[in-house]
Amino acid sequence: MDAATTKQAASLHFHQHCLNGGYKPVFTNRLQLEEALSFCKTTLENNLKENVNLVRVSAPLFVTRASGFNDNLNGTERPATFEPRDFPGTHLEVPFSLAKWKRWALHYYGVEAGKGIVTDFRGLRCDDDVDFTHSLYVDQFDWEKHIAVEDRNIDYLKATVKAIYKALYDTEQAVCKKYGIDAYLPEELTFATSDDMIKEHPTATPKERENILCEKHKAVFFIGIGGMKPDGQLRHDGRAPDYDDWITERPDGGHGLNGDLLLWNPVLKQSFEISSMGIRVNPEVLLKQLDLCGVNERKEFVWHKMLLDGTLPQTIGGGIGQSRTCQYLLRACHIGEVQHGWYNPKEVEILKKDGIQLLGLGEFDADPSAKSS
């Protein structure tokens, strides 16, 4: 299934289950919605800090291209870039995430092993899909934790994932109690691997495999994201070579010390990614993954040199989508209901006719404050 066909199928699914399915938003008062959004985010952040031993720190809105600090995602996306007026030739980029910056920040702040940081990250992803679960604007709790060398293993990954899921579970309990919403998350999280799911469902697409898992278990941590199958196709989605470790062999015979936290969305009737996380590359793994991806030139970036010479600590980290989480917790069918963004004008008009309000300028097909040409 190609990208265009996948998008068409997703759009049809959305229309069937939301627009034609009698969807009613939990909140119709916008100010009450904003108060609920604040409650969701504050509660989740506090639970994360307690469960994972994190400290809140400030974060940059842009980094220099030459530093190599920007996350490369799948390696093909364009960053939002600009040059300061008085410094032509200096290229600054709005980060896709803080995957690399956070690891440097642990070194910068002198954070000891067993403790970590969390940021309120805001960024732009110009090449992301724009639909009911994706936006050009990204907001997430970007977190990173300093770990000992011996903690680079699957057991430590699972223990950390369980702590994060407990933070999410407790947040849903608090939100549902406060706003009279039926709780949905199971108390226990299920672990599964991409390697096993490919064996069990060899002809299914990655999204279909996620749906199979999530519909059955409601909450799943899907281990092993990135890297190729023997046929040269992506194993399960792409990952940049310089943050998550997706090649280390696990005791179960699979590869990768990373994964995605997926939930079954009761409104959208499909799997719903809340978070991506993993144990990060060490110098040896970094060199192998850079070579596999054909980007050995990155070894000359400042960040990569700091990792290769042992300056940067061993870490585990990830990002938890704030708007995605709020969309799930408040049972919203469109991410534009819980964040200010821009969306397809044709889709916006259809949503309006069905009584679905997007926040702010997201509900207009043009910026009403802009001057006419």
Explain this structure:
The protein has 373 residues and is α+β, with helices and mostly antiparallel strands. It is built from 10 helices and 11 strands. The strands form 2 sheets. It has an 8-stranded mixed beta sheet with strand order 1-5-6-11-10-9-8-7, sandwiched between helices. Strands 2-4-3 form a 3-stranded antiparallel beta sheet, with no helix packed on it. A hairpin with a 4-residue loop joins strand 9 and strand 10. Helix 2 runs antiparallel to helix 4. The model has no long low-confidence stretch (mean pLDDT 90).
Topology overview:
Elements: H1 3-19, H2 30-52, E1 54-56, E2 63-64, E3 80-82, E4 92-94, H3 99-109, E5 116-124, E6 137-146, H4 154-179, E7 190-193, H5 194-200, H6 206-217, E8 219-223, E9 258-265, E10 270-279, H7 283-292, H8 302-308, E11 315-321, H9 322-329, H10 345-353
Parallel strand pairs: 1-5, 7-8
Antiparallel strand pairs: 2-4, 3-4, 5-6, 6-11, 8-9, 9-10, 10-11
Helix pairs in contact: 2-4
Residue share in helices? 25-40%
Chain oligomer state: single chain
Structural class: alpha+beta
Mean pLDDT: 90
Q: Could you tell me how far the N terminus lies from the C terminus, measured between alpha carbons in angstroms?
A: 42 Å
Strand content: 15-25%
Radius of gyration: 20 Å
Largest sheet: 8 strands, mixed
Order of helices and strands: HHEEEEHEEHEHHEEEHHEHH
Number of strands: 11
Q: What order do the strands of the largest sheet run in, or round the barrel if closed?
A: 1-5-6-11-10-9-8-7
